[in-house]
Amino acid sequence: MIVTVTPNPSIDRTVSLGATLTRGAVHRVTSATSEPGGKGVNVARALALAGLDAIAVLPTSDDDPMVAALRAAGVAFRSVPVGGVVRTNLAITEADGTTTKLNEPGAPLDADALDALTRAVLAHAETASWIVLSGSLPPGVPDEWYADVVARLASAPCHVAVDTSERPLDALAAGFGTAAPDLIKPNAEELAGLVGASPEELESAAAQGDPAPVILAANQLIERGAKTILVTLGAAGAVLVDPTGSWMAAPPPITPRSTVGAGDSSLAGYVRAAVGGAEPPRRLQMAVAYGSAAAALPGSALPAPSQVDLDAVRVYAITPAAIRP
């Protein structure tokens, strides 16, 4: 069982334009889709498409449109009752794949709802192989919630992955010395923020095929107690760093259509490979194959295994000599 946790779920509406988005202009939409979303929900959707036993845990009322959307998508879920309505996020994709996202803050969670969500996560951890904690935190939830849950899961018989950003990610990293998840999945900007580096420098070097700055930044987190770091780099691929080594994966050439859900698909690919007993290089290969497949799909569509070209992803081991500052 793989359990994904989405504290701030959403209905993800994606509209596609046939031309470049221009501020203040009137645009004609060429297509529009709506899917149940939020980062953890997306991971569960991708894993379910691969035939894995995955369940999405999220706060939502029984009559919320989110529940009907999850059922229609065939996603197993456990809802924690709340009084608010699940937010709607809007993504605007242009013909070249450029994506502009407008995300609502989400319905607030009071202390009782947050306690119920926490207890649901801890209960599922007893039978889960992986717990995947993903996304932003809604109003009313302390920035330290992910860090607190990771600490409480330290004695559970499951692996833990976290994919978040901004203050919740900072709070999580502050606790690496005492309780670190088995995996975190920052992008270049998020990694740079954690170590005080320049995101432009990391992204530029990666785009030129030089993973050294990314690996050096990730190793700073390893020294602080992090276990494994999967750094997604968009069109440049991804880097995986753990205490045993570092690897970079180059993605296959694709025609990008939408980046919505690409990072979540990468995390799903990594977890899928990990559940199958794959070694780190294979996990990275699967992550990049899944992320690339998602970026080639329209809207918020997520890839099925038949759409994932694993063999097209090249993985390189990076020697210590190649990453000296």
UniProtKB/TrEMBL annotation:
Q: What is the lineage of its organism?
A: Bacteria, Bacillati, Actinomycetota, Actinomycetes, Mycobacteriales
Membership in a protein family: Belongs to the carbohydrate kinase PfkB family.
Q: Which organism is it from?
A: Mycolicibacterium hodleri
Q: What InterPro entries does the database record attribute to this sequence? A: Carboh/pur_kinase_PfkB_CS (IPR002173), PfkB_dom (IPR011611), Ribokinase-like (IPR029056), Tagatose/fructose_Pkinase (IPR017583)
Q: Where is the Carbohydrate kinase PfkB domain?
A: 19-305
Q: What is this protein called?
A: 1-phosphofructokinase family hexose kinase
**Pfam families for the chain:** PfkB
GO CC terms for this protein?
A: cytosol
Q: Which NCBIfam families match?
A: 1-PFK
Coiled-coil stretches: none
Q: Which GO molecular-function terms appear in the entry?
A: ATP binding; phosphofructokinase activity
Question: Which keywords fit this entry according to its UniProt record?
Answer: ATP-binding, Kinase, Nucleotide-binding, Transferase
Q: Which Gene3D superfamilies match?
A: 3.40.1190.20
| Domain of life of the native organism | Bacteria
